[in-house]
Specification:
The chain has about 120 residues and is mostly beta strands. The strands form 2 sheets. It has a 6-stranded mixed sheet with strand order 2-10-9-4-5-6, with no helix packed on it. Strands 1-3-8-7 form a 4-stranded antiparallel sheet, with no helix packed on it.
Length: about 120
């Protein structure tokens, strides 16, 4: 059974930093491309960063240069370091494995972690 647990969110002022973590179990983590998604109020969930099993990364343009995704295959954990946060980064952040076409692989989502950036 897939189990994804996100943590590390919080309230931060604009320009601040947060580090999110996602612990995965019941998945093929070591071979999965993993991703961080976010969903702001009244908006669709969007994919913001991915990391392949070999460590290759990709980012949506709005976070490029500010966010860094990484992974610990031994611990089945993926991280998202978020710097220079902006109010528009406010959202609930989720992790999931990502398919080759950028879609979430697992139907089961975690509870997410709330990130709120004040101006």
């Amino acid at each position: 059974q897939v189990h994804l647990v996100e943590s590390g969110g919080g309230l931060v002022q604009a320009g601040g930093s947060l580090r999110l973590s996602c612990a995965a179990s019941g998945t093929t983590f070591i071979t999965d491309t993993m991703g961080w998604f976010r969903q702001a109020p009244e908006k669709q969930r969007e994919l913001v960063a991915t990391i392949t099993s070999f460590g290759g990364t990709n980012y949506v343009g709005s976070v490029k240069g500010r966010f860094t995704i990484s992974r610990d295959n031994a611990g089945n954990t993926v991280y998202l370091q978020m710097n220079s946060l902006k109010p528009e980064d406010t959202a609930v952040y989720y992790c999931n494995a990502v398919s080759r076409v950028g879609m979430p692989r697992y139907a089961s989502w975690g509870q997410g972690t709330q990130v709120t950036v004040s101006s």
